[in-house]
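G., the chain you wanted modeled:
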Amino acid sequence: MGERGDWMEDSKIIELYFARSEMAIPETAEKYGAYCIGIAKNILRNTEDSEECVNDTYLAAWNAIPPTVPQKLSAFLGKITRNISLGRFRKNRAEKRGKGEAEAVLEEIEDVVSGRENIEKNYEDREVIKAVNDFLAGLSEEARSIFICRYWYFDNVEDIAGRFGKKESGIYSSLERTRKKLKKYLSERGYDI
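Predicted structure as C-alpha cells:
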C-alpha cells in the first residue's frame, strides 16, 4: 500500500486471494475502494448504503476468487458493486418508492428494453451482451463514453456534461440518439426486447 499510483499490481492482489491472505481485501480497498464507492453512490445516492455495498463487494470477491481468475480486476469489482448496488436500490425503492438517479436511468433505458425485470434477464443473455458490445464498438468514442457513463456507471447528466464540456441538452440528445440506434440495431438482429 502507498501513494496513489504506487498500488500493488492486480496480479499480486489476485495472488493474495488465492493464498487466502488477510491482506487481499485491504489491498483491494486501497486500490479500488474509491472506484467502487463511486459506482455505488451513483446508483444509491446514499453514503451509508454505498459503503455497505462495497463491503459486500469485497466479501463477494473473496468468495469468488478462487476459483475465478478475473481478467481485469477493476471490471470484475465494478460489476459486483453495480449488481449489489442495484439489488439494494430495488430493495430501497420497494420500501420507499423514492425517485433518484437510478430510477431516472432505468426509465430512460426502458424504451430500449421491454421491462425492468427483463433488463437483468436479457443482460445475462450472452448473445445480447455481445450484440450490445458490438453496437458500442461501432460508436464514436465520445458517444460510447457518454452512453457508458450514463447507463453503466449511472452518472448524472450534469456531471457527464461537465466531463465532456457540453451542455446538458447536448448530452440528453446524444443519449436519446444512441438509445434509438441501439433499439434499431437489436431489433434488426432479431432481439425482441
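Residues 115-120 have pLDDT under 50 and may be disordered.

Shout if anything looks off.
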